Amino acid sequence: MTARESYDLAVVGAGIVGLGHAAAAVERGLRVVVVDRAAGVAGATVRNFGHIGTSAHRGEAREHAERTRELWLRHAPRAGFWLRAPGTLVVARSDEELAVLAEAGEGTALSGNDVMRRVPVVGALGGAYLPRDLQVDPREAGPALARHLARRGVEFRWRTGALGVEPGALHTTRGEISASAIVVAVNHDVDQLLPDVADRHGIERCALDMMLADGVGLGVPVLTGSSMLRYSAFAGTTAAGALRRRIEAEEPELLARDVNQMYAERPDGSLLVGDTHARGLSVSPFQDEAAFELLSRLAGRMFGRELRIRQRWQGVYASAPQDFLRAAPMDGVRVVSVTTGIGMTTGLGLADAVVAELF
Ligand SMILES: Cc1cc2nc3c(=O)[nH]c(=O)nc-3n(C[C@H](O)[C@H](O)[C@H](O)COP(=O)(O)OP(=O)(O)OC[C@H]3O[C@@H](n4cnc5c(N)ncnc54)[C@H](O)[C@@H]3O)c2cc1C
Questions:
Q1: What is the mean pLDDT of the chain?
Q2: Is 351 in the pocket of ligand 1 (CB under 6 A)?
Q3: Which domains occur in the chain, in start order?
Q4: Dihedral (CA of 193, 199, 201, 206) sign
């Protein structure tokens, strides 16, 4: 970098949350720079399901999700990435799951046969179709959005680590950047840059095991079983207690590994298979094969056949008691993170709200 340069907004982190801030700011005609220590979009934003699950949330998450939905629909044609609006199919394969769906009353109720006519799953007793949910290809959407923003004048400084922040100045591994406002959107790595903020908000890491398998012809993302204990619209029902007890009795490993039984097919026909969750201040570098075996077994049971696994990987997101971190540790500095693993669903809307407040 040359000498000191000046911007309206400097963003640290080029994941969906950082990109959301850059998009909202450039939309308002502001001069924006984004720094990321990686060589491209490489964090949680490319490692997820690409599921934009608007309907399954309540409260603040729902507010950000509704706005995020509008923003994905606006960005996709402009930035030229794949987005579809297939909704989500929640599949019930036990009476307890049926009771959760009935009580939640979310979406259109389906019979078991309706479900099995729509998707190649076995053993469905019923389901709920949530029509408003969107889907992107996580490996494409973030990078395409970054390229689009670069074309609109946002400056990206890749392989540039942020070292420290003060009002009006961002210190990086390639020099200092002057900006009226600075947004730190570094996901779980808040503790590396602003440890006090991380400690105050109880930020931990949540590490997830994920797999990619040969596709099964799934036109709509599907979730089932223990996934219903994860999304507030279902987890908040009284029937969720009975479902949890049944899973605890029959397959406690699902709760021990906090499994999200979710499946989403990418545009190339490969199937994203998820996922386990392990929380702590640091992430174990050693991924447990038993976790992948469990995910394979569950997928086999869901689709009635063994799936060929093509890839395995780990994703990490920030986790905290509150759903969102939105801190203002200094004048003009904001620290923003989605701390529940729903950043694709809520991140763009959250970022838009932060930029509206800053400018
Ligand atoms: C396996 C998995 C499945 C998921 N599925 C879904 C889903 O289907 N739907 C959904 O809504 N959400 C899902 N999520 C959650 C979602 O992916 C995250 O909430 C979201 O991507 C977080 O975005 P981010 O921008 O905060 O983080 P990231 O994408 O991780 O970006 C943070 C960036 O900050 C950079 N950075 C960190 N420190 C510094 C520094 N000091 N200097 C410069 N750069 C720095 C990193 O290099 C990184 O690029 C999933 C997450 C995982 C891991």
A1: 96
A2: no
A3: 5-78+138-202+321-358 (3.50.50.60), 88-131+204-319 (3.30.9.10)
A4: positive
